[in-house]
Amino acid sequence: MADPETNPPADAAAGAAAQTAVPPTLLDQLGGMVRELPGLISDRVELLSLELQRAGKALLQIVALLVVAAILGVTAWLVLWAGIVAALVAAGAPLVLALAVALVSNVGASVWALWRMRRLLPLLGLPATRRHLTLEAPSAAADEGSATAHAHHDLAAAAGH
Question: Which end of the chain is more exposed for a tag (fewer CB within 10 A), N or C?
């Protein structure tokens, strides 16, 4: 067996041949890129998979913490109203009146929240985006100044102003 260290003329001949070799053609370079493509894609797919797993775990923790926060918030709300009722009774109001004040206040806040929610529901359909992405009839698209004003109104509405 020949030792690579003891055969320097063969290495020198290979080095000289490499220096005189023709640079790879565009087709050779494209072929090399195509051969490397599966490795590049698999690395990115693996990264996506790992990040999706981490995002799923984070989402699960967020939901669990949201449930804990909701329970603690409801508990605090009940204690607050118990304190208000106790303060009203201590101030001389009948218990029934104090409970009625708490009930009416909470029902009123609930009605307002439901009314506000119903007003926000149409925004879930992304009306401004749908209007701008759908093709309009030529007669409807004729007034470009009106469309620009409408777009500014849509952006202001989306920002909550």
Answer: N
